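Write out this protein's structure.
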Amino acid sequence: MQPIQLFEMAARQADWLSVRQEVVAGNIANANTPKYKAKDVTPFEAVLDKAYIPMARTHPGHIASNDLSEEVELKESELNEEIGVQESGNTVSLAEELSKTGEIKRQYELSTGLVKSFHSMMLLTVKR
């Protein structure tokens, strides 16, 4: 039996959200570090475009291809126009970073809610 693609995509998004949360936490931790440049990761859509999600195979003799590993790229965050570059050379905006943590939390809750609902629907079909 082939795995359901929804669960694989949800797992990829959870991994991406965890990497993004780690980067944002690093930005917050270095908010007072001189000459520290704020960082962010590529959007999930870009990671998903690079990722290969194979079609389900109904027979072992069907063509299979290699699974490409996803690459989350770390990039310098865009300069916040409100704070610009501080006197110390730091580009971290705490308000923006805290906003990102809220966004990450909402995306994680949405993803886990969808997986939970899908899992419940699958259990309903099995119980009959």
